[in-house]
Each structure stands twice: as C-alpha cells, then as structure tokens.
Amino acid sequence: MTPVREPRLQPVPLSELRPTQITVGMREVREKCKRWQATDPDKGADFLGKHMIPVILGPKDRHYVIDHHHLSRALLDAGVAHILVSVVANLRKLDKDAFWIFLDNRGWTHPFDDSGRRRTYADVPKSLADLVDDPFRSLAGELRRAGGFSKDTTPFAEFLWADFLRRRIKRQDVEADFEQTLELALQFAKSADADFLPGWCGPIPKS
Hints:
39% helix, four-stranded mixed sheet, Conserved hypothetical protein from pyrococcus furiosus pfu- 392566-001, ParB domain, 8 helices, Helicase, Ruva Protein, domain 3, 8 strands
C-alpha cells in the first residue's frame, strides 16, 4: 500500500528538520542557494508552496527529511526560516533503534560518509547545518544534468553514481578542477563498467 503524504498547514522551522543521510554535495547546495537568492520574492513564495519537503514523523515528534536534502540545506543557508512538509509516515511511536532500522529497511536513510563508508545511525547529523560535503555527490549530480545518466527512481541513485566515480577519480582532482573531472566522469558513465548503475544510458555509439 502506497503511504499517503499529509501536508502540514503549519510550516516547520528548517532549523528543526533532521537529515537521514550524512552527506550532500555542497557545490550543488551553493548553486541552489544562488538560484533561490536570485528568485523574485513573489515567485519564491509560490515555489515554496509547491515544493513541500517529504518527511517521516519520528520519535519525540521530530521531522526527518527523506528527500530534497540539497534544497532544504540551500534554503536554510539562504536564510529561509520555515518550510511546508509532507508527512510520508508517522513513526513517532517507535523507539530510536527501531525507528532507524525501519528507515533503513525502507530505503529512507543513507548512513554513508564522504568516503563512501557505512557508518552508524548515530553518525547521521542532527541538523541540516551539519551535513558533510561529498564532492563526488556534486559530481554525480552534475553528471546526470550533463546527460551522463538518466533520472531514476532507485533510492539514493546519485550516491551510487558518486561511489562509482569515487573509485575512479581522485578527490583532489574533483576539488581542483571540477569541469575537467566532469568530462572524465562522462567517459566513465558511458563505459560498460557502469552498466549496473541506475539510469545508465549506454555507451556512446561509434560514428
């Protein structure tokens, strides 16, 4: 049965939202923040009304973000105080351990650090402001927009691509020359080595 998302008419403070992952691509966050700051205030209000953040209601009535972490962090950095949320599931009766195990089994959490290593649930930040930068997540996001792979419904698909790239490109190269490493990432994305990843578009046809 598909869970019913229930929007809250009362906005929730962005500072109180809790992430369900450890990292984001801060380059992508900064770009979203810039676009928001350049948005006309009237259009911005309409945007916020149409982009509710999906959350799980957890222990102690806390709201746990399960998608749009980059947008949420960008709006927080831009000084937005409140956001509308859509409650995907109400799990506030569960204790903390059972809560995180349930999220994990539903694919609603991604407790991996910026080296691609799985960590404990306790390592997941308690605030959007404490999310850690993973430059390979930014690279994967830009790779998709450049046509390296297609959008896919697989949970955390871009993190899977980030880990694929992490094993083939040095982090210092991504941080030193993002555009050059994007070109390299496009080559890797079109190779047969990536055919197991969600959204793979296949090799470039030979002319």
